[in-house]
Amino acid sequence: MIELKLADEKLHDELVLVLKLFFSQQELDELACEFTVEQTVSGLDIYTKVTSNITDKVYESTQKIIDQKFPERYKKRYAKLELFYMLRGFRPDVILPWGSLTGIRPTKLTYELIKECNGDYMKAYNMLVDKFGVSVEKARIVKDIIKNQQFVIKNDNLVDLYVNIPFCPSKCYYCSFISLPIDKCRDKLEPYLVALKKEIIETKKLIEQKNYLVKSIYIGGGTPTILDASQLDDLLETIGYNVSEFTVECGRPDTITKEKLDVLSKHGVTRISINPQTFCNKTLKEIGRTHTSQDILDAYKLALNYDFSINMDLIAGLSNESLTTFKKSVNKAIDCAPDNITVHTLSVKRGSTLKESGDETLSGNIVGQMVDYSYKKLTDNGYKPYYLYKQKNMIGNLENIGYFRDKPSIFNIDSMEEFASIIACGANAISKRYYSLDNKIERFANLKNIDEYINRIDEMIAKKAELFCNN
Fold first, then answer.
1. What is the DSSP string of 181-213?
2. I need a labelling partner for 93 at 20 to 30 A (CA). Which of 106, 189, 405, 467 fits?
3. Does pLDDT of 51 surpass 90?
4. Residue 223 · residue 167 · CB < 8 Å
5. Is the dihedral of CA 145, 150, 153, 156 positive or negative?
6. Does residue 408 contact residue 129 with C-beta atoms inside 8 Å?
7. What's the count of helices (H) and strands (E) in the chain, helices before strands?
């Protein structure tokens, strides 16, 4: 086992993430090595020393602390960087397009670097490459995304509203969300909706009390269109806000009907998702989807009769798909010409069927080629990247990127970059309060378990009110 001996145990989990960039879990379990990280902070300097018995080298670094208000942030940053450069010397064969970055928001880090560089964008992008080891290609994507986010208004009085529907037609093999197959829990649906509507009503009172303005709404899950038309109508009536961006994840094409789309249109929904993940029928069956690629095309054609902006999701790295198969899915999505296309990299998440099965996944090299192809093909066809995030245990330490033609999603930008407060309702929904003056985020997560959420809904309402009412 690798052992990390740290002067500050708070660094442990962060440094383990760096180790996982270079070693598989099996290698970590089998490799006998030891790392020692020492750090001291003095005045305007932070001193980091990393030693390892696998390289017989000592790495030392003294860095200037630019902002003394955040010494802990720099302490973690430089410890990770020193370990990264040590391991890169030990394993130069490992290809890491995102270099030392293990966090989920490379763009958020870049915004911080721009601020540290007194607004010098080019210096910040160069730091991504020269200091953090990010490839020139990935740094260029970050640069384009930040350019495409400049229209977003940041104001502490503007909030986004999120509503979670944790039910699906079936469980996908890569899914680790709390979403439940509807056939196994149909008896929970109505009690859940009763609790959810109570939370929404109280949340609206909170929004009014704090004089917030709702700038976007996002109903996600799960698959919100697992609800029938009457249930959808009742839920949307309860929400009752008129906003310029109102997204409902329709997700599964087998849950989309004309009656439901009529309801969404009636209540001012402006944006929906119809998510293929892949257009390969064999893969759809293997990953646990209960529809075909033709169902996707039929649902998309039906939705074109309305004035919705439509998003399609694809996943790179699914169930032994070849590069050729993935290319066909990307090309088919482009042929459909939705306003948004989001390309995800498969993440092997704890709690998913994929993780528990121990099945092998595609190599990071192959998935990297898939991601690179999607970027080139989409940008060649007029799509522009507008938000990006990473997740733990993604194949190849790669990324998810959202692309747009005319209308980027404000909610997606706000949630990834943490530009605004998000008031969230539903089981496992996470509310975030954003303080722009301090560049600070405070969070409160509702209970994950649906039964507990229903039984303790008053507690969830009270704690969320406490988060947003405290000064």
1. EHHHHHHHHHHHHHHHHHHHHHHHHHHHHTT-E
2. 106
3. no
4. yes
5. positive
6. no
7. 17, 17
DSSP state of 383: -
* pTM for the model: 0.91
Region 247-273: mean pLDDT is 96
Task: Check residue 67 and give its pLDDT.
Answer: 56
Q: Are 134 and 98 in contact (CB under 8 A)?
A: yes
- Would strands 440-445 and 384-389 be described as parallel, antiparallel, or unpaired? unpaired
Single-letter code of the amino acid located at 298: D
Among 92, 179, 167, which residue's Cα sits nearest to residue 133?
Answer: 92
Report how far residue 173's alpha carbon sits from residue 342's, in angstroms, rounded to the nearest whole number: 19
Structure tokens at 466: 């406490």
Q: Which pLDDT tens digit goes with each residue over 2-33?
A: 555 666 677 778 888 888 888 877 777 776 66
Could you say which DSSP state residue 159 is in? E
pLDDT reported for residue 1: 44
**Of 69, 5, 137, 141, which is closest to residue 440 (Cα–Cα)?**
69
- State the Cα–Cα distance between residues 314 and 390, nearest whole angstrom: 15
Q: Residue 76: is its pLDDT beyond 70?
A: yes
Backbone angle region of 342, left / alpha / beta, with phi > 0 → left and psi within -120 to 50 → alpha = beta
Determine contact, residues 264/300, Cβ cutoff 8 Å: no
Which token pair is 458?
């008053």
